[in-house]
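for the writeup, i need someone to sanity check this before i put it in the appendix. the sequnce is what the collaborator sent (i think, or maybe the updated version? ugh). structure was predicted straight from it, no edits. if anything looks off just tell me and ill rerun, i have time this weekend
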Amino acid sequence: MPTNEQDPHSDPATASPVRAARGTGAQLVYEKLRREILDLNLEPGALLDETELSYRYNVSRSPVREALIRLAAEGLVHTLRNRSSVVASFDIAELLGYFDALDLMYRTTARMAALNADEAAIALIRQEMEAHEAAIRGQDPLAVMAHNADFHIAIAKAGGNPYFVNWTKNVLLSGQRILRLYMRHFKDEPTDDMRGEHADLLAAIADGDAAAAEAAAAQDARILSKEMLAFLTRRRTEGLLPASTTETG
């Protein structure tokens, strides 16, 4: 007798994937793809086929397309002329400009936070600092990156300017995969440099000392840029990393 149930032994090439609950598919694909891209499990230039991803995540192609659009808006996915998608490349040659932007962003938001932060904002910054330190102790690389970003975003929010908050988010996101590559070099084991100048920065903001906050933020950026540039230079010299990667299409 015919039924509406799908034959479990039917050809998987023609069978429809099991659908995720309405409204959750795009978020599921977005979160999983984003994690794989930031963790470098999906390398720059890797093809992102909508059909393959729809079966992989048991959703239709529509949520996959929506997730890819979100990732493209974050600069993690690049859409080619033929409308296919690849993991976005990053250009090592542009890192000096990135670290200049990071330094300016750190210093500006720290100064603004010292001048404007209230007790609730300071408590949130402290909470994110403690979460970052816990992630380092737990040797969770993606959590380390996420909480470091959340710490600096909390500082930007404390300054009270939403444009600086968006700027902070964009700058930090741009450097996530480079930071991940750097952390892999140390086999995801914590180093003192990963803690940055967070404690001094928080103390200066809590004291309302704008000059000290800016100095601590500048030192935080300086440590990160110095270590990462030295690491990437070694990798390139050893032939393990190209000077740049290019996007084709």
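The radius of gyration is 21 Å. Confidence is low (pLDDT under 50) at residues 1-22, 239-249.
thx in advance!!
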